[in-house]
Design brief:
Elements (H helix, E strand, L loop, with lengths): L1 E8 L1 H5 L3 H10 L3 E8 L3 H7 L9 H8 L4 E9 L1 H9 L12 H5 L8 E3 L3 H12 L2
Antiparallel strand pairs: 1-3, 1-4, 2-3
Length: 134
């Protein structure tokens, strides 16, 4: 089933110069990056994007991390790309992410975990609209 999803490379991926290696993994799966842009996030958009976490004590760390530099947002299309991207990126907790996943191979911190990908069709639609205005 052909789908679209939102993928975001977080500031730590750019700081660590992993952007090309991560994008290659996405393209190696045969998925297509149909739009891409670099942007700097604000606390307001982070409160909207991470609404489920905004009242948690660690939210300030998320804001600090996500505003520490630019992010790269992408619309990625392909067969079962939503579920497939979630598998490719690996567990949120870097120490649980399996080798061969992006986080399993490159992440070393749970807050700085390199990448975000939508977890459902509804969140993909909402996140694409939020970051690309579609």
């Amino acid at each position: 089933m052909n789908q679209r999803t939102y993928v975001m490379l977080k500031p730590d991926a750019l700081h660590r110069k992993l952007m090309g290696r991560i994008i290659s993994r996405i393209e190696d799966k045969g998925w297509h990056i149909t739009q891409m842009k670099m942007m700097t996030l604000t606390e307001d958009i982070l409160r909207e994007h991470y609404a489920a976490l905004a009242d948690k004590p660690f939210f300030a760390n998320i804001v600090e991390t996500m505003t520490s530099g630019p992010v790269v947002g992408m619309i990625v299309e392909g067969d079962s790309v939503i579920e497939g991207m979630r598998i490719l990126i690996g567990s949120t907790r870097w120490y649980e992410a399996l080798p061969g996943t992006i986080r399993g191979d490159f992440a070393n911190n749970t807050t700085c975990n390199l990448i975000h990908a939508s977890d459902s069709v509804d969140s993909a639609d909402m996140e694409i609209k939020r970051f690309f205005g579609e």
